[in-house]
Structures are given as structure tokens and as C-alpha cells.
Amino acid sequence: MMLPDQRVDSVTSDDIAKIIEAWNLKPSTAAKQLERIRSFFRFCLERGWIERNPAAALKPPKEHVIAVKPFTADELEKIFWAPPFSQRRGSIKKKTERVSRRS
Questions:
Q1: Which of 17, 48, 77, 82 would you label with 98, given CA atoms 20 to 30 Å apart?
Q2: pLDDT at position 8, please?
Q3: How far is CA 90 from the centre of its chain?
Q4: 8 A C-beta contact, residue 84 and residue 92
Q5: Are 86 and 98 in contact (CB under 8 A)?
Q6: How far is 42 from 78, CA to CA, in rounded Å?
Q7: Closest to 91 in 3D by CA, of 81, 83, 100, 103
Q8: 20 φ, ψ to 5°?
Q9: Percentages helix, strand, coil for the chain, rounded to the nearest 5?
Q10: Residues 35-79: pLDDT tens digits?
């Protein structure tokens, strides 16, 4: 959605909110786009073209973070019961070999 043939001093917060609602973007991308719009209107305000920034009061969309566990319970069990690997050659060593070397 664009604002064709509309003067910059006639744009309202509602106009910008309608544009944002039409975006089909990830929340982080939408937040960046909103920051660009805010910067534009801040520039217009500094130049005296508008009396207030209509984008200043708008909040970016919230990011929904979904916690993802890196392993399933079955995978974790396999990892815990797997024999240890040697750091030097990638070969498998038994626990008894490692313990006897330290003694």
C-alpha cells in the first residue's frame, strides 16, 4: 500500500499503520522498515516540512521466539550412552584406558 498523491504533511499515524499491516514480513524485517519510515519523517521534521512525526508513536511488531531444543530425548540418550571419542585421532577409547593413563 502506498500513499499516492498525498503530501508528506498530511500523512497520519493511521496511514502508516495501514501500510505496516499490509506488509507480509518477518517481525524483525518489519521493525527495520518502520525504523526507515521513522527516519524519513524525522528528516522531514528537521527540515520543517511537518510539525510532528506521525511514525514516532508506532511500535514495531513483536518477535515471537520459539524455543527449540537441539536434541530429542532419544537423541540425548544415545549421546549420553555413546563411548567417548579421543580428541587426537577421533578414535574411540574405553573409559578404563583413559583412567589407567592418569594413574
A1: 77
A2: 86
A3: 37
A4: yes
A5: no
A6: 57
A7: 83
A8: -60, -40
A9: 50, 0, 50
A10: 999 999 999 999 999 999 999 988 887 877 777 778 888 988 888
pLDDT of 91 reads 52
Q: pTM for the full model? A: 0.56
- Domain-wise residue ranges, the chain: 1-67, 73-102
Q: Angle at which helices 27-47 and 13-22 pack, to 10 degrees?
A: 150
> Residue 14 and residue 18: Cα distance in Å, rounded?
6
C-alpha distances in Å from residue 62, one per residue of 25, 26, 29, 56, 76: 12, 10, 11, 17, 33
Of 22, 62, 61, 19, which is closest to residue 41 (Cα–Cα)?
19
Would you say 38 and 53 are in contact if contact means Cβ atoms under 8 Å apart? Answer: yes
